[in-house]
Design brief:
single chain, alpha+beta, eight-stranded mixed β-sheet, 3 helices, 8 strands
Length: 152
């Protein structure tokens, strides 16, 4: 294993011990993109090499309101994801893996219909899906966590 790959592996596995920053800066192979809320305990995204790891995307409007239905929440979550990717110089075309968390698996069909419409036919990301007892906000029905290829 060459030196840069070893450094990347150390940085991913032991980010603080390897000296990677968490303040929005770059040091070594990792780059952090801060959340809009200065008090947030997470980053909007982290780039490791040519991969963007996005924070969970939810169906929330810019004014903070949350629609009631799974279809609208899914659409908003994916629009928010698309905007996040675009702000980082990437797009939905580069998403290769997602995890979907739904609070009611009986809404799977409605969720899946909207989800699939955001990706090109034949280029759907690999995906895992989970039924969960709850999400960070009581009104949420879906949260998506995805990764995208994004060469520097």
């Amino acid at each position: 294993m060459n030196k840069s790959l070893r450094a990347a592996a150390l940085c991913v596995g032991f980010s603080f011990a390897a000296g990677c920053t968490t303040d929005g800066g770059t040091r070594g192979p990792m780059e952090y993109f801060s959340a809009e809320d200065p008090g947030a305990a997470y980053s909007n995204a982290v780039r490791v090499g040519d991969v963007l790891y996005l924070a969970g995307q939810i169906g929330i409007r810019p004014d903070g309101s949350i629609p009631e239905g799974i279809e609208e929440q899914t659409r908003l979550a994916l629009e928010n994801m698309s905007a996040q990717l675009q702000s980082l110089g990437s797009s939905m075309d580069n998403v290769f893996n997602c995890a979907a968390m739904l609070t009611d698996m009986s809404t799977w069909g409605e969720f899946n219909k909207v989800y699939a419409s955001f990706f090109k036919s034949g280029r759907l990301p690999a995906r895992s899906s989970f039924g969960v007892a709850g999400l960070a906000l009581k009104e949420l029905k879906v949260e998506l966590v995805c990764q995208a290829y994004s060469p520097r």
